[in-house]
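Quick one, probably user error.
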């Protein structure tokens, strides 16, 4: 099977190109794509509990902690402790963070509006149907369960 005939190849390369373009735009605003994604997923009014943020955006705790630290150092976010339970921390946007969030939002809207002009409604519907199937399989099935163990030959 050629790489171009696998499901993972176009997913990987498309995502790689999306990241490249988003990071190019983000760098103009002293952001990374990851920071922009975090900003877009923080509730603007009440903040977002730090324990909900990682699962919400699919980031591992270690990576999220480093990203939040950088964002806090840059003045985009602040952490607010819960008065009743000090273990609970909300991640909140600063005024600068709201500006950076708006820049991130504009980039995402522009990307999606641009693709909407290039992709028909039917193609878009099929794309989302296929992605839903892929995500469902990855979430609910152990796809490598039947994969035989690979034995190295010396």
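Nope, works fine. Designed sequence:
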């Amino acid at each position: 099977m050629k790489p171009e005939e696998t499901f993972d190849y176009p997913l990987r390369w498309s995502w790689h190109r999306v990241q490249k373009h988003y990071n190019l735009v983000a760098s103009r605003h002293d952001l990374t794509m990851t920071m922009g994604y975090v900003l877009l997923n923080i509730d603007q009014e009440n903040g977002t509990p730090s324990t909900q943020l990682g699962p919400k955006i699919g980031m591992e705790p270690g990576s999220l902690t480093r990203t939040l630290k950088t964002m806090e150092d840059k003045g985009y976010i602040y952490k607010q402790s819960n008065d009743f339970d000090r273990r609970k921390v909300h991640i909140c946007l600063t005024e600068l963070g709201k500006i950076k969030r708006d820049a991130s939002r504009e980039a995402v809207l522009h990307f999606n509006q641009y693709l909407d002009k290039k992709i028909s409604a039917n193609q878009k519907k099929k794309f989302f149907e296929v992605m839903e199937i892929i995500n469902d399989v990855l979430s609910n099935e152990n796809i490598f369960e039947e994969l035989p163990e690979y034995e190295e030959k010396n």
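The chain has a mean pLDDT of 93.
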